[in-house]
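hey m, so remember when u said the C-alpha cells were messed up on ur end? i reran from scratch. heres the input so u can diff it against urs
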Amino acid sequence: MNMGKFQKIEKQHSKQIMESKHKLKAKNNAFKQKQSDIRTSLVETPDDVVEESESDPENVQTDSSIYDTLLSSLKSSCGSFAHVYNKRQREQEGVSSEEEEESEPEVGSDDMSDAEVTDVEMETKEASEMEIAEEEEAEDVNNANDESGSGEECDTEVDEEEKVNNDASMNISSFKSHMEYILREADVQKLKEGKRKFISELAAYGMPMCKWKTTNDAFPKDDDKLASYSVKLSLQSQWQTIYKRAECCNFTSAMQSQFFSLCNSYQDILHSNKNAFVAGGQDDDLSVTDAYLLHLLNHVYKTRDLVTKNNARLTQQSNNGDKLINAAEPPRDQGFTRPKVLILVPLRSIALRTVKRLIELIPNSCKESIEYKDRFIDEFGAGEDDENGDLEDIAISEGQKQGKNKTSSKPADFQALFGGNNDDHFRFGIKFTKKTVKVYSDFYSSDIIVASPIGLITRIGEAETEKNKDVDFLSSIEILVIDNADVILMQNWSHIVSVVDQLNRLPTKQHGTDFMRIREWYLNGQARYYRQTIILSNFVNADINALFNRFCVNYEGKVKLLSVYNGVLPKVLLQVRQVYERFDCSSVLDVDDKRFEFFTKKIFPKIKDSLQGGIMLFISSYFDFVRLRNFLKEQNASFCLLGEYTKQSDISRGRTWFFHGERKIMLYTERAHFYHRYKIRGIRDLIYYSLPERNDFYAEITNMFEGVDNPTCTVLFSHFDSLQLERIVGTSSAQKMLKSKKQTFIFC
C-alpha cells in the first residue's frame, strides 16, 4: 500500500509541475486562482490509477525506481521533491504507514497544500527572474500557440514525412533509432571501461592520403541522396535550392556525402584534416561545415516535430475528458532542458560565419523573421563590411574582405583568421519556432547554444559562486560540435576539458520540466552515452586525442581520421643545416624534465659563451618558456623575451636589442607567433626547444635567416613528439627517426 501512496503523490506532483510551468506565462492578477487549482490537483487523484498501482506492485517498483537519483538531486531546490524523496527513503527502510502519518501531515490536508503552494511560488519567482523580459514572455506564448495551434495539421506534416522516409531505399541510423535505443547494463559497463578498439578502416573520399577508422565492424553506407538519410523534406528542398542540385544527386562531392553519412550515424567523430577557411581551402571547409550544420538542423527540427506532435495528441486526449484516465503513459520525448546542440568556436568572426551559414540552410518558411539580426551583425561583425546585415549571403571570410582593402605582410591564414572580430568571449542561444529564428534567446528556451570556451567557463564560474545562476542548460546536450579545435589549442585547451566535463549532469533546479516526459536514459544518468561529439581540427595532438578518448563514450561508436603527411621541409627555401637531436624518455610524465635536462647539459654549454649572439630559442609550451626564462636568469645570460603575455613596449625593445646584438638570446613562443606573426631579424642560430604544433610555423621561422653563412637549426624531440614530427619531416621519415638506433639526424 505504501508504494501505491508514493505513486499517488508522484502523480500529484507531476500535475503540480505542469501548473507551475503555466504560471510562468500567466498574469499576476490570476495567481491566486491558480493556487486554488493546485490545491485541488493535490487532493484529487483518479481511483483507477491507485487500483492499478496496487494490483501490480512490481511494475510500480520498476517505474518509480528511475526517479530515485533525480529526486535526490532536486530535493534541495524544491520542497515538494524533498518531501517525496524523504518519504521514499522511509518506505525503503520499512517504516509503517502509521508512523508515517504521525511524522507527516496527510497529503490532502490544508497544511500540506499550503506548503506545496509556497514551494510553487518560490519556484515560479525563481524561474521568472530568469526570463529576459515580459515582452519576450508574451512573445514566447504566441510562438507556442503557433507551434501547437493545429494538431491535425502538425500530424499531417509529420506523417507525410515519415511515409516518404520509410519508402527510402536506406535508413542509416536515423534520429529515431538512436534516441529510442535502450542501453543494457552490460553495455554501460563496457562503455565505462573504455576499451573499444578501432577495427575497421575506409578510404577518405577527397583526401588521398587519409583514411577513416571506426570502432564498429563496418562503416555506415553513404548515398548521394538526402532522402536516404531521412532528412526532413523542407531541409532537402532548401539544400537543393542553395546548391542548385538535382534530386538525383544532392551533395557537392563524395567527401561531403561521406562525412554527412558519418554525422548521421550519430558516432563520435574526430576530423583532423579540416582545412582552414583561407585561399585554396575555403571550399573544402564550407563542404564539411555544411554537412554537420545540416545534421544539426535535422536533429533539432525532428526533436521539435516529435514534441509538437505528442503535444497535439495529449491535447486531443485531454479534450476527450473521460478517456484521459485510460490514456497510455505520456510519451518520453524530452530532456531536462530544451537546448540540444552546443557549438564551440574560438572567435566571434568564426561564430558569425557559422551562424550565417546555419541560417542559410534553414527553410525559408521557417525564417520569415530573424529576430535581433542587426544586433548580432553589429556585435560579431568586423564593422563596415557588415553594414548591410545580410545573413543570407554565403560568408566570405572576414580576413579575405579586409585583404581587398589593404596589403599586408602577414600570411594568408593569419589575415583570414584575425581579419574580423577577434574577441574570444561570447555565448548566445538560437531558438527556432514555426516561422521565426531568434538569436540571443534565453538559454532555457534555446535549441542551439553557440559559445566560446572562455564564454562558458565564465558562466560556470558564476554558477559556482552565485546561487541564482546555474548551468543546467548543459544537462541535455545531445550533439556537441568543437569547430576549429586547432585554434582553440592556441587559447586554453583546459577550458574545453572543463566545459565537456560539465555536460549531461543532472540538473540542480526544476526549470518547469515535465518529468513524466523525460527519456529514461536521462533519468538513469546515461545521457553522455547518447551524446554525439564532433571535433573538427586542422591537425591532431595529444590534448585532442585525450579528450576524444576520455569524454567521447557514445554507444554508437567512434570514428577518426588518420592522415599520412609529406612534411614541410620542401617549404624551407634557404640552405639551412637542420640537425634533429633525439633524447630518450620512457614516460610521458618525465618528458618535460628529460627535455630540460638534455638542453642544459648538451645544448646550453655550446651557446653560453657564444660571442656572436643571434640565438633564438623557439618554445611551444608556455610552461617551458617560464622554466627556461628562470634558468637563463640563474645563469646570468644575456637574453630577451617575446611571449604571448609580454607587453608590446617590451616586445619592440627586445626585438631591437636582439637585432643589434645587445641581447644574445631570444625566447620566442608558438602562441606569440600565432597571434602576431612577427618577422624576427638578426637570427644567426635557431634552436627548436620543442616542435611547433602547426607545421607551417616551422617553415616560416626557419626562413627568417638573413645574410647568414651556413645557418644552422637544431631541433630537440622524443618519441612523445611523434605527431608534431611527422607533420614536419613527413610520416615515413618520422617513423624511421623514432625507430632508429641513431639519435642525430641531419636534413640539408
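this time it looks ok to me. DSSP finds 31 helices and 18 strands in the chain. if urs says something different then somethings off w ur setup not the seq
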